[in-house]
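Sample 3 of the quickstart, ligand 5'-O-[(L-methionyl)-sulphamoyl]adenosine:
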Amino acid sequence: MTVSADKAFYLTTPIYYVNDAPHIGHAYTTVAADFVTRWHRLAQEDVWFLTGTDEHGQKVLRTAQANGVAPQQWADRLVESAWLPVLDVIDVENDDFIRTTQERHIVRVQKFLTQLKDTGHIVEGKYEGPYCVGCEEFKLPADLAENESGEPICPIHSKPVEQVSETNWFFSLSKFTEQLIAHYEANPQAIRPASAYNEVMSFLKSGLQDLSISRSTFDWGIPVPWDTSQVVYVWFDALLNYATAVGLGDEPGTEGAAKFAKTWPADVHLVGKDILRFHAVIWPAMLMAAGLELPKCVYAHGWLLVGGEKMSKSKLTGISPQSIVELIGSDAFRYYFMRAIIFGQDGSFSWEDLVARYTSELANGLGNLASRVQAMVGKYCEGKLPVPGDLTEADNLIKDLLTKTVAKADRDIRDFDFQNGIMAVKEFIDAVNLYVTEQQPWVVAKDESQTERLHTILYVICDSLRAVSTLYASLMPKAMNSLWSDIGAVESGLTQSITTAGNWGQLKPGVVITKSESLFPRIEEPETI
Ligand code: MSP
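Result:
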């Protein structure tokens, strides 16, 4: 996905419920978002990356009540102790963090709602039907499963749904059915992957019902401006975060209006597949009603599964990101989830697979390559990058493969095919490792007449690692920043850039090659697991 110069590449994660602390399913979405936005930044693009927390609604209210604290106090506690710290744990560089209890959000939601009411898109009505508090969703009969006693349950939360009967305010969602279908027919890339597109299209074709957008039986939410006996339905409130965070509805000439012009429409809303319909049906209809541009793409990824089911705290299958990062570090955490699971499909997490890939691909593959060449430059060239001679056919193969690798990784990662993008870089590293084995620099070093050849081999390996440290920088920022400097790129006066990463021979001969702290130290599988 490429963006024009005056518009930032604007990508969002869902905003997370603060009823509990994050597990690796939540971290998965945020890491994917961080990976792709760092990639765009490394291509010198203007980027805006938003994440945040969804704090209103019954689910959060009930958790706060169960813990004997006021909902605002509960939300503050969870944000401070869990949701902000996890961004550091998984090494995320977001530009903004929105909380739906912030004034900037509340004011803009109320303004938007008033506009929709004034233009006839919101009317009073009666809602009667099932509701899942876990999903915070009014359910349709077709959405439900049954438990052993024949009760209707939510298939995601495996819990009985509740019956709601309230007089509420309704958004005229059904009016937008045809317009939504037409929009998606004209823009098939607006919902990805294709399976998500097909799901939404068949849902739309079955017809839409108007949506209750307020609740009257509890008060933890944004008051409906013209009827303060009601609070805004949590999803209507939450979806608006993507636009309120960048100045939705602000007067022309204000900072908010300038920000909105620079960022809207969003380029990508990354979401889990469970919340696809909210994003690809309700949200665009809200925007259509307000006469605003629609996001360019909603990308629905799969679930991390445990025992074949969606990992979740409520089912006690949630694994904290900290527990994995403590073992293998944030870089390898990010690498594993982006590398091992096809983005857009479900994937099972296993400690065995994690440790096996860490050991073979990171510690033995990349880490070993770096430490070997650093040791050889130390031993044969007094730690300074030698001057290369003419390139042989084997050297040129590496050089050409690098050009192809950069192009492929760039194409795949922009296209959310993270696994293949990473594989392209991994295959390049494998090729360089094979090159080392075949060229045998330790044998060449024994023959004084071959010094120039030895220098060329070492240069080829170092310059390859210089490129790798850029290509993997958005995936493993900490380790790749240290490799970048250890391999002499900083001393060579270079700037990390995807656009130039494939240009051969950028390292300056004579720069110091430092022996890295082990990039990926060996780990033992924890005994308790
Ligand atoms: N608050 C809503 C989103 C509002 S966006 C306007 C919400 N929050 S959530 O905390 O329940 O989930 C946030 C995201 O985490 C969703 O994209 C969801 O799919 C993702 N995941 C939660 N569990 C997950 C897995 N086990 N695996 C992968 N992603 C998962 O929904």
